[in-house]
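Supplementary Text 2. Reproducibility record for the structural model of the 87-residue chain.

All settings were left at their defaults, and a single model was retained for analysis rather than an ensemble. We include the record here because the model underlies the residue-level annotations in Supplementary Table 4.
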Amino acid sequence: MNTGTRHVLMLVVSLTIFLTMAGIWAVDIGVSIQSVTCHYPDMQLVATNGWNEITGIQQYHRGLYLTIVSVMLMAFVTVYAVFRGLE
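Retained model, structure tokens:
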């Protein structure tokens, strides 16, 4: 495996680690919103970034999907690196 391919793989791995952590963080925020809303039903909490508002369930699922996609990408990169390294 040449150095250019190795650098690209390292970049992709770094990106997938970042996306996995961001997804887990989004899941944490979504679960926290759901937990507070469950204990205090009168409070209508939403996650917002200043432009749009989403419920705790939506935040949870967005984080879950992001985590799933990034972990699958990491697995594909790992399999590619192992099989390319055997040549």
